[in-house]
Amino acid sequence: MPFVKLSKVTLHYEHAGHGRTILVLVHGNFASWRWWLPYLQQLSPEQYTLYAPDLRGCGDSDHPSEDYAIERLAEDIHEFVTALKLPKFHLVGHSLGGAVSLQFALNHSNLLHTLTLVSPAPAEGMPHLKRTLFGIGPAELNHLARSLDLSRSILRRVLKDMIPTLSPEVKEFAALLDDAVRMSPHALEGFVQSLADWNVLEQCPNLHLPVLILWGEQDVIVKRDALERMQDALPNARLLIWPDVGHAPQLEQEGAFTQVLSEFVNTPQHTTSDSWSDPHFERPQSWRARLRLWLSQMRPRR
């Protein structure tokens, strides 16, 4: 079980592969490195090297009592990749980890080849979280903040809503629930407050990295219109939309997600296409052909 000591905390991470294509995978709220387990196991170890850290307050990383702002989490990732002496890499973030990854890219775009955002917190933030979290009202949220371990039934419902196509009866769901229960209550409060206050939409036009945004139409947490505004603000971004998928495409559509991610990070030219009028992928049966068409036609916006 490897760890890296940073300036403020020690982070646990998991690692797989020894290939030339390096990916850093950042999980979301109520989560851990385990949300990336299929890719640590399935992506070719000869082609890829993958790193999946636990954010502070999550999994086996340190659980400090404060300092859970998205900006701080992004700097943790910067310290993490610096400590490991990683060369230029591809960054992938899910949910809260999407916000962390976007903040990292805004701060350190020179370290990245591409940015993939999976059901990410939008660049404009999520101010509605001040009223409700994933359908949890103030009373239940207060209960969660006191003890996640005592709130297992609430978290089970949250995860079921987040991942509607994954049965709560399978062992994979139980493992995700165990990780959610282990998260620091301080982290929960800090993450919610930071997501509610964070807003980098006006900074997005300065980020010229190739960005792929993935979102499922059954996502009850992140709204499509907010992601469309983020896509419009990013000079070199496209939005991939899957029907019959919730808040975790990487767990609900493992095969399709693997193919999309692999093709995106291995495309030699990463610039957007003005000739393709439809920026959205609407049907799963056509995603591969349309992704290849998009990647083959990409060129800079003028």
Describe what is shown at a glance.
With 302 residues, this protein is α/β, with parallel strands linked by helices.
Strand-residue proportion: 15-25%
CATH C-level category = Alpha Beta
Provide the number of structural domains: 1
At the third CATH level, what is the topology name? Answer: Rossmann fold
Output the structural class: alpha/beta
Number of strands: 9
Question: Can you tell me the CATH superfamily?
Answer: Alpha/Beta hydrolase fold, catalytic domain
Could you say what the CATH architecture is? 3-Layer(aba) Sandwich
Strand order of the largest sheet: 1-2-4-3-5-6-7-8-9
Radius of gyration: 18 Å
Task: Indicate the mean pLDDT.
Answer: 85
Query: Number of helical runs?
Result: 11
Order of helices and strands: EEEHEHEHEHHHHEHEHHEH
Q: Which geometry do the CA atoms define?
A: globular
Helical residues, percent: 25-40%
Main sheet makeup: 9 strands, mixed
In terms of per-residue confidence, which ranges show pLDDT below 50 for 5 or more consecutive residues? 271-287, 294-302
